[in-house]
User: Fold Orotidine 5'-phosphate decarboxylase from Mucilaginibacter terrenus.
Amino acid sequence: MLSREKLIDQIKLKRSFLCVGLDTDVDKIPDFLKSYPDPVLEFNRRIIDATQDLCIAYKPNAAFYEAMGIKGLQSLIDTYKYLPKDCLSIIDAKRGDIGNTSDNYAKAFFNEETTGMGFDAITVTPYMGNDSVTPYLKYDGKWVIILALTSSVGSKDFQYLETGNGFLYETVIQKANTWAGADRLMFVVGATKSTEFTNIRKYAPDNFLLVPGVGAQGGSLEEVCKYGMTPDCGLIVNASRSIIYASNGEDFAEAARAEALSLQKQMEAELQKAGII
Ligand SMILES: O=c1ccn([C@@H]2O[C@H](COP(=O)(O)O)[C@@H](O)[C@H]2O)c(=O)[nH]1
Assistant:
């Protein structure tokens, strides 16, 4: 489990706030891995070995594993077990349902004794409100990461609706912050929405933000840092495809490392600029 203090320590130690997204699609991994008993696990292991000194988090997206049925679930469990303990383990599952159902989603991803998976953090959709989110908060020390302003084009459909108290995404942040503190709650904010970060910091001055959308989606790391960084860093920036599919040859792990290193170097410069390291 990675507390807020430990997370900040890791950021300073590794001079990085990079999250590597393990969106592992069996159709995109190099052919030579296909002869391994579990090609997805083999791919993930090599990506993890190649990047773990450069990142502070890993984020498998549940969809890629669930799409493969029982085999995929086993790959996810075995990948979870392989994740380095000094990195935050995030399951990007975007769950949310009535209380007793959310209890079971929480059990699925947090209760290692039962399922073999004890992720540090889960992404949760806030649409169903308080009773759909609190089941995840019952697990001491686990993080809940609430979708606030997503990187998707469709974010405008609901997240920018006027509530009379600002945009819906602003209300989500304000309300969710009454359910738990910045030591348990993070928010997802897309890198493609970098100019909104100043506004978001009005409602979430201390929360860590999980920021997908640099790399393949074209978001700017520099702008995210300019508008979203706090004295504790406050950012975990994810890149998935741009790292894990940097090459689909035998050199895929080296190519992934080179991509991760390039992001880590930019992050180091931002942390120095902000006086954090
Ligand atoms: O607003 C959001 C929320 C989640 N995601 C997820 O993050 C990664 C991004 O992958 P890239 O390959 O780096 O684009 C992926 O798992 C998404 O499902 C997001 O992109 N935006």
Observations:
- The chain has 13 helices and eight strands.
- The domain at 4-271 is CATH 3.20.20.70 (TIM Barrel).
- Residues 21, 23, 61, 92, 150-152, 188, 190, 212-213, 215-217, 238-242 surround LLZGTKA7 (CB under 6 Å).
- The beta strands are 18-22, 57-60, 88-95, 121-124, 143-149, 185-189, 209-211, 235-239.
